[in-house]
């Protein structure tokens, strides 16, 4: 483990394991997916793994201020935990967060406070999140989107957002899988 992941795992666990054990399991699964695509991330592999294990900390009861978990989690990481700036930005923008922020009237606030990381890292975190069930096991993005829409209801803000985000989620997944396939074809 790197210094970054050695910091990220205990922090995420302290915020999620007791109050939200299922969410904690999901974050562990997302981090596991991040390790499976490390070959396309180079020196950013540990950065992505740290963001993956932390991406949902904004759901922690003590952190939930706006009710929009990417923003709440990123603010905590920036202001309280003094986290790595790139991890903070990935958490703020994970899994098409800008679309949900827009639906909540928070997009300008999100984008003003937190610049986006590179597209390939945002794709990678979206891939990891949307290929992991709420219990932390592997899935595929179509089933994951259906699960989210079903859990929140199709007419809810989250249900509407996730359906709107579905084409981008699928495109992100396709881009990551293309990069993994290309990396595997490269001679070692």
Automatic annotation (TrEMBL):
It comes from the Bacteria. InterPro entries: HD/PDEase_dom, HD_domain, HDIG_dom. CDD domains: HDc (cd00077). This is HD domain-containing protein. The lineage of its organism: Bacteria, Bacillati, Actinomycetota, Actinomycetes, Kitasatosporales. Pfam families: HD. SUPFAM superfamilies: HD-domain/PDEase-like (SSF109604). Residues 19-177 form the HD/PDEase domain.
